[in-house]
From TrEMBL:
Residues 36-217 form the FAD-binding PCMH-type domain. Keywords: FAD, Flavoprotein. This is FAD-binding oxidoreductase. Coiled coil: none annotated. Belongs to the FAD-binding oxidoreductase/transferase type 4 family.
Amino acid sequence: MNSGFLASCAQIIGQDHVLTSESDQQAYLTDWRQRYTGKAMAVLLPTSTEEVAALVALCAQHRIPCVPQGGNTGLVLGSVPDQTGQAVVLSLKRMDRVLAVDVSNNTMTVQAGCLLANVQAAAEVHQRLFPLSLASEGSCTIGGNLATNAGGTAVLRYGNSRELCLGLEVVTPKGEIWNGLRGLRKDNTGYDLRDLYIGAEGTLGIITAAVLKLFPQPRASLTALAAVPSADAALQLLNVARSDLGPILTGFELISDFSLQLVLKHFPLLKKPLDSNCPYYTLLEISDHESEEHANGLMESVLAKALEHGYATDAVCATSISQSKTLWQLRENISAAQAMEGKNIKHDISLPISDIPTFIDMADAALHAAFPGCQIVCFGHLGDGNLHYNVSAPVTMRDTDFIQQQQAVNRIVHDRVHGLNGSISAEHGLGMLKREEITLYKSALELSLMRSIKAALDPDNIMNPGKLI
């Protein structure tokens, strides 16, 4: 252990915020799904951008790898260190202040350690909406959301994290501070450094603050669940909804019947809102700036048209905020229910929306042929082409044995995604988990360009090494 380095860290942030004991570090070293635990020389807890810059400058001086971390809710091992014990984890959890709200400009400036749920609440105080919404919003941070370009349930209308950010403050691998906290919607003055750092998973620098876009609060928000006979019917319903609802269609989720049954099994307080069984269900949400009556009329019209044409066989609209939350819980608890059922092989993929039914048919058939009895949990953001296509073991096989087949399962799924011009990571990033996998699907030129950027900005490879590339 480098005692001189750690002593210098303590001078910057105080000894109490330099964690070196195994018990103090544990929560920072184990990933969200409890699959992997790394090791670290120390966990550092700064409270300001200047402290982050001083710590990173020390890391650069001593050639010590630095792993930035927000809420540590990632799913691809992007925010935990490797097992060498040579790195430090630099957690931004203490940097959790809202710095400014500009109501007229519809912007909010926050430190990177702000919890997403707290940003949403702060916007609501000013009668504004920050629309990024994730199942982990009570634990994930804005810095982590931006570092992974998180998507969530409202991408269809508002875009992902990249579209919701106007400016950044970043500490470079040399410990310099780039202040790009500009609340401008037009700034055509050269390379867009903001977009370079968003989605870079902390490999090019550490995001310490951001200027976020805010929106007017809608006057009405309405949720509905529709049973659909196939993924293709769900696509047809999406086409009707987009045509008739336009920009007020906020979310459009696909849920397979098997996914729904897992939630009902493991969350018995949640009840199935429809009597009929169907292969798939769609969850629709609209946000209207006119009135609740207007929103109800539009939703009822879309569902009536879907029922008339056979795109849906049954449907229910939430009539209260409580009912709306219950419908969303059926969707948001799928991952938790699958985890309760046992270990599984996850895929976070994106495809041209028009090709999603084709992909599901192809991948389902290939997986069932290769692994008879395997159980497929298919759900996700159909409206923006992002599926969470997870595969669980057959009931006759132990989940620990099935996990050993991950490489073969990935080949079946990812090869078909690639064949349809899709992506093997839609919103989770690459991290350590998919770093090698992506080399099978990106061109040599694309990988070379990415490595050139990394080498130019972080020549000593101290910033989250071993992740993404």
